[in-house]
Amino acid sequence: MASARTTGTAVRPTGAQAHHPQPGATAPARARDWAEIQERMLVPLYEAVYDRLEVGPASSVLGLGCRSGLALLLAAGRGAQVAGQEPREELRELAHGRRLRVCAGFRPTAAVPRSAHSLVTVFDQLPGAAAPGPVVAEAARLALPGGHVVLAVWGPPERCASAPVLDVARRMAGRTTARDPFELSAPGALEDLLAPAGLRPAGGGRVACPFAYADIDSAVRGLLSTGLFDSAEEFSGASLVAKELEEALQPYLRPDGSVRMENVFRYLVAERPRR
Which end of the chain is more exposed for a tag (fewer CB within 10 A), N or C? Predict the structure, then answer.
């Protein structure tokens, strides 16, 4: 497996460097960790998609599961009209602080038709989703005829150094409903979601998205903010999950105390036919 493992002996934080994330962090704290630590890891993915589809002033971009809205900010910086849909209130509040129009869900009105966007992105909602089909169907409904939907997932696990770290979530979730974040990374799995939603494939690509953190504490907090470890925390306890994460991250710890894992994400572009 490709990884950013350093040569020599891994350095373990000690003394003043050692700091353990608060077990059972509150939802607002997790939201801040996402916005301040984890969200930037996917910027190469966002930019690659926007370059591919030439997002600009003529674009209307909707982010489904947009979290605190960094991807929308990048699209707005290109001149696009942007909006988001995010079910978690604490993340919506952060997006509102960035002056983004983000709602819990959209209802069609005469003034704002349900299908009103030239591009609908699902950057972060599919990995680990219990029911990816309805998410893709919703994205298709919100896209203009002739518009595009972009779905993103992790790349092949053998190309993602974070795979063994994410496996902590599976191992510690017991018999709960934790999903494999690589389930839709299998060949053809993402494409199989298109036809039932009335979409057709229109290309795609892979993007390198290294996960780089200042220290172990930041790495643990950032990974926990993804939501992929929620079931594990509920089953095994937040303190034990944090401890297991620290152990799993040791091979990626650098001599200066930072953490880096080389990962690949995959995106699929789909088109909503004009009829």
Answer: C
pLDDT in tens, 169-223: 999 998 766 788 999 999 999 999 999 999 999 999 999 999 999 999 999 999 9
Contact 33, 52 (CB under 8 A): no
**Whole-angstrom distance, CA of residue 106 vs CA of residue 102:** 9
Is the Cβ–Cβ distance between 147 and 272 less than 8 Å?
Answer: yes
Q: How far is CA 232 from CA 55, 79, 175, in A?
A: 38, 41, 10
- Identity of the residue numbered 7: T
Return the structure tokens found at 269.
């572009």
CA-to-CA distance for 200 and 273, rounded, in angstroms?
7
Indicate the pairing of strand 117-122 with strand 143-154.
parallel
Identify whether the C-beta of residue 140 lies closer than 8 Å to the C-beta of residue 199.
yes
Q: For tokens 């200066």, what's the residue?
A: 256
pLDDT in tens, 27-66: 999 999 999 999 999 999 999 999 999 999 999 999 999 9
Strands 81-85 and 200-208: unpaired
The first and second tokens of residue 61, run together, are 């971009």
3-state class of 235 per DSSP? helix
**Cβ burial 25-56 (10 Å sphere, 16+ → b, else e):** beeebbbbbbbebbbebbeebbbbbbebbebe
Q: Which of 118, 268, 130 is nearest to 194 (CA)?
A: 268
Are the beta carbons of 68 and 95 closer than 8 angstroms? Answer: yes
Please name the amino acid found at residue 10. A
CA dist 255 and 262 (Å) reads 17
In terms of C-beta density within 10 A (0-12 exposed, 13-18 middle, 19 or more buried), how is residue 73 classed?
middle
- The three-point CA angle 227-263-240 to 5° equals 40
